[in-house]
Amino acid sequence: MNIILLSPDDYINDNTVQLVDDRLTHINKVIRAQPGDRLRVGLINGKIGYGIINNVDKTLCSLTVKLDQEPPPATPITLVLALSRPKMMRRIYRMAAEYGLKDIYIINSYKTEKSFWQSPVVEQQSVHKYLLQGLEQSVDTVLPSVTFKKYFKPFIEDELATLAAGKKALVAHPGNHPPCPIAVKQPMILAIGPEGGFIPYEVEKLNQAGFDTVSLGPRILRVENAVSTLVARLFDGAA
Amino acid sequence: MNIILLSPDDYINDNTVQLVDDRLTHINKVIRAQPGDRLRVGLINGKIGYGIINNVDKTLCSLTVKLDQEPPPATPITLVLALSRPKMMRRIYRMAAEYGLKDIYIINSYKTEKSFWQSPVVEQQSVHKYLLQGLEQSVDTVLPSVTFKKYFKPFIEDELATLAAGKKALVAHPGNHPPCPIAVKQPMILAIGPEGGFIPYEVEKLNQAGFDTVSLGPRILRVENAVSTLVARLFDGAA
């Protein structure tokens, strides 16, 4: 937790917040903060700044906050990801928020097991928790939007072209395809398959929707590592 | 498991292997293979090819193997990584093997908790297991070498310059540093701190050993995501 994220409910007046829950635990157990200490805080979907601790004990931490900095710029990649195993999805939500992705579409695919659509990783409340963890890591406040599309074909045929308009659209797929480009200077939309990959029909439908197939080389990467590799290559966030 | 890795002990004659353990489980439960099926196999530190199943049951799988392809090229990055939490190290070992890194040095740092040096993630036998998992994912056979250096200063002062000779040497550290370069065309050596980062003294010692400090941008990434981001940016494996 490199930033403590606040919601409007935490405010008791214009510039004072009272924290309980795991943020209080973090302040007591990890930071071991004392009255007068300065902590980095931010308002969810708002600005970043500092909070000075007024008082802190086992039940409550009161902070006077000043928020005056913008959060870091968003990473201009829309992610279209086939639903994978819940364990992997939890990591990918955290990672996507950490990398500054803001628009995420979780779609069905042939190799997505039906049971995954019954798991908590497709419930907004759980997803929200993992996204917050990613923002807390990377010192951002802006929550990504995660949209679930349980039907592959209508999404690809009816909605995807609109989403991809004006963007460089890529689908990563193992095989003999052109290499994934580096440091692209325009908004992107990126489709990534489930464990085991998209089937040829799915790649074809994505190609018809304007997505170019690209390769990440001879190695087969885990889905989560494919996500981080693609984001790291495509977006030159350090420049 | 995208490849079944063999060791010399599995051979009962020049081209027949008998498998038990989790590889047999995988063949039965995940692949659900039958006699006559062709599976991708490789010899640890050797070639890749195919195995044809002679017979398979709950206790044993016998395969006739033919190994005729080279494993994918190594990723020319030596990784010097401060020891972090065991949970994170397990993922990083898998990931490093998956990405084709072959030379890994695990070092002490100020923010490395002493107890980490007592955990199984610094025992070669455990490490071997995680590295194999990474190779099984990415279809490689060549085991990385992992070396532990429990004393920061003598390693940095006496050994690191030799290791870094002829390589582009970089240390990733948050802050106002030049951005991490992209698609470097020479061998590299890359130093990455623990959770919470290197302390200024450690960065300075690395700089003295010829490492340039580079930034990954305004976001603070988890150590494992810093590793994948750096490897993805520095090495253009797809080209």
UniProtKB/TrEMBL annotation, chains A, B:
The keyword Transmembrane does not apply. Residues 75-233 form the Ribosomal RNA small subunit methyltransferase E methyltransferase domain. Signal peptide: none annotated. It is found in: Cytoplasm. It holds the Pfam family Methyltrans_RNA. The keyword Transferase applies. Its EC number is 2.1.1.193. Specifically methylates the N3 position of the uracil ring of uridine 1498 (m3U1498) in 16S rRNA. Acts on the fully assembled 30S ribosomal subunit. Belongs to the RNA methyltransferase RsmE family. PANTHER family: 16S RRNA (URACIL(1498)-N(3))-METHYLTRANSFERASE, RIBOSOMAL RNA SMALL SUBUNIT METHYLTRANSFERASE E. This is Ribosomal RNA small subunit methyltransferase E.
